[in-house]
Amino acid sequence: MVDALSFLKTKYILHRDVKPSNILINQNPIIFKLCDFGICGRLINSVAGTMMKGTGIYLAPERIDKERSPQGYGIQSDMWALGLSTYEIATNEHPFRGLDAIPILAKAETWVPQLPSSLSSELQDLVAW
């Protein structure tokens, strides 16, 4: 998925709605595919704008609070959503489920992922990254 987002960046495209339901997984061989480009946007000077598009609980803090990034947001917001998606896929829970935008902002600033010890060390490193 990181490769997919990196490729989009080379084409100046921001997905804006990375979440588990937009990640397709082929089982044999294991291949991940990013889908649903319905609200993607063009990057201009590494910034895609300030419109709040996407699924609320996957939005990066700078997309919720425009004062954090008055110039707009970029690829970092897709990477944030990928991190949350990876965490959710690995643990079967979302750390911000049920919260509105302001509580998400407050929790996101101090949140440290608590990963089950049953996860492989490689997966723990990936999610913590």
TrEMBL record:
MF term (GO), any: MAP kinase kinase activity
EC assignment: 2.7.12.2
Domain of life: Eukaryota
Gene Ontology biological-process annotations: stress-activated MAPK cascade
Pfam families membership: Pkinase
Protein keywords: ATP-binding, Kinase, Nucleotide-binding, Transferase
Domain Protein kinase: 1-129
Coiled coil: none
InterPro entries given in the database record: Kinase-like_dom_sf (IPR011009), Prot_kinase_dom (IPR000719), Ser/Thr_kinase_AS (IPR008271)
Similarity-based family: Belongs to the protein kinase superfamily. STE Ser/Thr protein kinase family. MAP kinase kinase subfamily.
Protein name in the entry: mitogen-activated protein kinase kinase
Biological source species: Adineta steineri
Lineage of the species this protein comes from: Eukaryota, Metazoa, Spiralia, Gnathifera, Rotifera
